[in-house]
Amino acid sequence: MRGLWIATVLVLLALPSPRAGAQVFGASGAEFQVNTTTTGNQYGSAVGIDAYGKFFVTWMGPDGDNTGSFGRRFEPNGSPIDPLQFRINSNTTGRVDHVGAAGHASGGFVVVWERMESNGDVHAFGQRYDAAGELGGPFQADSSTPGDYPNPAVASDDLGDFVVVWQGPFLDGVTEQRYNSQGTPLGATSSSTKRWRAISSRFPPSAGPGPANTSSSGRGAATSTDGATRAPALL
Fold first, then answer.
1. Positive or negative, the Cα torsion across 143, 154, 127, 118?
2. Which CATH number is 2-224's, of 3.40.50, 2.40.160, 2.115.10, 2.60.40?
3. How many CB atoms sit inside 10 A of residue 78's CB?
4. Contacts 24+ apart (CB under 8 A), 39-45
5. pLDDT of residue 71
6. pLDDT tens across 80-126, in order?
7. Would you tell me how many other CB atoms lie within 10 Å of the CB of residue 161?
8. What span, in angstroms and rounded, lies between the C-alpha atoms of 224 and 214?
9. 179: closest CA among 123, 112, 232, 133?
10. DSSP codes, 117-159
11. Could you tell me the residue ranges of all domains in the chain?
12. Distance CA 147, CA 210 (A)
């Protein structure tokens, strides 16, 4: 059921503009506007879908200091759950980039983003949501070690466990951190110096997110790539 809804939702934000657009296929063929604030450019979208077909659209736009991450939730037919968009990042200093989202069977979502600090360091952050709204505050997925490679992405299983991956600690490597459904880290971060591209945004409920590996069974989160270095991306 969850796979069906993923196939029926498409978010379109190809170019920076004051309008963030989306379109639901199946229930409706009409494009609709996602953002309610049209000041400045809205761009760089991502979408997460839960098992019921509800979806969470996140994108980037001006937040007063530089760029921030914003979100809005929708019913399966495209009707808004939230009457207005809301800012996801609580810290508005620095520049936000590379947003991502994942939904799971219990109706919750996880959103991730990258933030560049004033000193040039870049880190990966996340925020969990349930039907009522935020679950706890934003969390930092990577360590406090200075770096500039995060480019985060996120995937969740049907139990709400999730994994966040980001680029580093080397330009051609990837690091992951697994979490349970309560947002508690499961073990330490795991890194690889190989080139990886994550290919799965859903894991078997019995297995949960596992370390990045080359398995095609659905248990792993990534497969190695050839050619140029690519940032982690969960499809």
1. positive
2. 2.115.10
3. 17
4. 41/16, 41/17, 42/13, 42/16, 42/17, 42/18, 42/70, 43/13, 43/15, 43/16, 43/17, 44/13, 44/97, 44/98, 44/99, 45/11, 45/12, 45/13, 45/20, 45/99
5. 96
6. 999 999 999 998 888 999 999 999 988 899 999 999 988 888 999 99
7. 21
8. 7
9. 112
10. -TTS-EEEEEEEEETTEEEEEEEE-S-SS--S----EEEE-TT
11. 2-224
12. 25
For the chain, how big is the Rg over CA atoms in Å? 17
- Kindly state the average pLDDT of the residues 154-171: 89
Q: Using CA atoms, how far apart are residues 179 and 161, in angstroms rounded to an integer?
A: 6
The residue whose two tokens read 């299983």 is 157
What is the Cα–Cα distance from 55 to 23, expressed in whole angstroms?
Answer: 12
Decide: helix, strand or coil at residue 7: helix
Residue type, 95: R
CB contact at 8 A, 98 and 113 = yes
pTM over 0.85: no
Amino acid identity of residue 166, one-letter, is W
Structure letter (DSSP) for residue 2: H
Q: For residue 222, how far is the Cα from the chain centroid?
A: 16
